[in-house]
Amino acid sequence: VRGIVPSEHSAAFANLLRRHAPRMLEDFYAGLADDSGVTHWGDKLPDPEAAHAVQAALPHTRFIVLVRDPRDAWASWRRYRERPAVAADFPAAASIDAEAFAHNWTNLYASAASYLSHALAVRYEDLVAETAATTAQVLRHLELPDDPAVDHAVEDRERLRGHATITRTDR
C-alpha cells in the first residue's frame, strides 16, 4: 500500500486489513465460483510468504506443498530464463547459478515447513509416477471425498504428458 496510505497511517491500515482479510478472501473466492456449487478452492501461491499470509487470515486453510527434485527444478529454470521475454524482463535471472538456485530452493521449502500448519508435502515425482495414490492422499488431507471425476482425470494420464523434466547427465 506504499504510495496509497501515508506512512503515519500504515499501522492502523494494517490492523484494519488483518481484521477484514478473512472475509475479503472468502468473498473473493466465492465470487470466482460464480454460483457453480463450488465449496472448496485452490490457488497456486507464489511463495511461502503468500501462503503464510493466507494462513494468518484463514487459519483453517489446508496446504499442499508440491516439492520438485531440485535438479529438475534447476533444469526447468535454466530453460525458462533463456526465453527472450524472460531475459528482457528479468536480466538478473541469467546471473543465478546452480549454487544460488539450490540455496533458494532449500530456503523455500524450509520456510514452508517451518510455519505452514495443515500442510502436506507432495513430491512431484510421486504425483507423476503414482498419480492415483498421491491424489487419494491429497484428497484425504483436504478432507474431500473421493470423486469419480477426479478418478477419471487421473486415469486420463494424457494431461500429464510433457510435465516431467528429464535431465540428461551424460552430456
Secondary-structure topology with pairs:
Elements lengths: L9 H24 L14 H10 L5 E5 L2 H12 L2 H6 L8 H18 L3 E5 H6 L1 H11 L6 H8 L16
Parallel strand pairs: 1-2
Helix pairs in contact: 2-5
Could you walk me through the main structural features you see in this protein, from its secondary elements to its overall organization?
This protein is mainly alpha-helical and 171 residues long. A two-stranded parallel ribbon has the order 1-2. The longest helix is centred in the first third of the chain and has 24 residues. The termini are far apart.
Strand-residue proportion: 5-15%
Mean pLDDT over all positions: 82
**Topology order in helix (H) and strand (E) letters:** HHEHHHEHHH
Helix vs. strand class: mainly alpha
How far is the first residue's CA from the last residue's CA?
A: 49 Å
Record the strand order, biggest sheet: 1-2
Evaluate the radius of gyration. Answer: 20 Å
- Total count of helical runs of at least 4 residues: 8
Total E-strand runs: 2
Which spans of ≥5 residues are poorly predicted at pLDDT below 50?
166-171
Helical residue percent band: 55-70%
Sheet with the most strands, sense and barrel status: 2 strands, parallel
Instruction: Give the overall form.
Output: globular
Characterize this entry briefly.
The protein has 171 residues and is mainly α. 56% of the residues lie in helices and 6% in strands.
Features:
mainly alpha, globular, two-stranded parallel sheet, single chain, 171 residues, 8 helices
